[in-house]
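Handoff note, outgoing to incoming analyst
You'll be picking up this chain. Sequence as last confirmed:
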Amino acid sequence: MINALGLLKRRRFLPLFTTQFLGAFNDNLFKTSMVLFATYEIFADETQESFFNALTAALFILPFFVLSALSGQLADSSDKARIIRLVKTVEIAIMAVGGAGLMLARTGAVTLPLVLMLTAVTGLGIHSTFFGPIKYAILPQHLDEEDVLGGTGLVEAGTYLSILLGTILAGFVYRSPVLVTVLTLAVALLGWLTARAVPPAPRLGPKLVLDYNPVRASWRLIAETMHIPRLFLAICAISFFWTIGSVLIIVFPPLVKNVLTADASVASLVLAVFSIGVAIGSVVINLMLRGQISARFSPASVIAMGLTVLAFWWVVGLWTPAPEGQLFDMAGFIRQPHAVLVLLALLGVAIFGGMFVVPLYAFLTTTVTKDHTARTVAANNVVNAGAMTFGSIAVAGITALGVTPSELLLVVVGMCVVSAMIAQRLHRACD
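Most recent structure output, in case you need it:
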């Protein structure tokens, strides 16, 4: 196995990596800017903020649930590189709609801007639904088998580093809708250019007859995939992981504002630390496994993730809020006695999360033949989307009943235990 970073020198990997990097960066630059703008400029109520964040997450996830079956069929029956170029063209239009919503919101209007912004978020969900299966399914087609885990780890690390950069930048520019619009359109155009350099990845198996009925196609796709024990367990474990992630992402902005009493720059810092941690975990697990696709470290990783979530909850409970009517800026936040502990606990959550999930994605793309990889990833996306949508709706309902963001962290701890149990069964079944 070559050093995983050496894959970045390969034309069969670098354009895909760059295109994915730019897409994830742009998604998060827009979504984070929108959420921060709504949290700090539009809403002034913790319940409304949590509900809006949950609605945003649900609308982004919903297309995965409805359209993943179709996206998997298209990817396995067409040239994957061609689909990538088409998807990146649509991204330009999505960013134009989202930018218009942000600029209208700055004028003081509320309803139409929110509709446009949420429409763009839904569009980004559709964009990711069609790109998601390809970014993993194309790896076994372009890389040697012993490099698939390394390539998967780099894609995950690159994704979260791009989330980091998009999140950090959003914290500085979200108050300027014009600047956000210009940046997101420019990045979308750059992604369109890099997508044109992705080498062809033509259909390998027989051409499929596409099923456009989302319910029937999704059911058939899941049934054809989930009967394989290791795929069933891997998909269940990944679904729990992303449900945990969706809860955390929903919780972070209102928790930062209302519990840590900090401004948007600190909300960006918290999300950035989370992204750095997942990237680190993605690289660390590849080094530990030495390219071998195995779940042997996954149970311990997710248990450690749960313990660090518990530590994060405990440290947040010790926090001394800012004086009434004030919010800590980043410098003021860092000066607080427990700030370092908060960030270290959060970093631990993310590192162990990255270590948990990367090998599971490698299972998806190496368990089946290459002409079924996109549909396998798509089946995973359908199940993930269902779990994450349920999680987002549950968070919206629970917060409406008065449960605080801090208390939701304890729910996450329990979910980590369930994930560990599933991962242990996968380890026993496969290793």
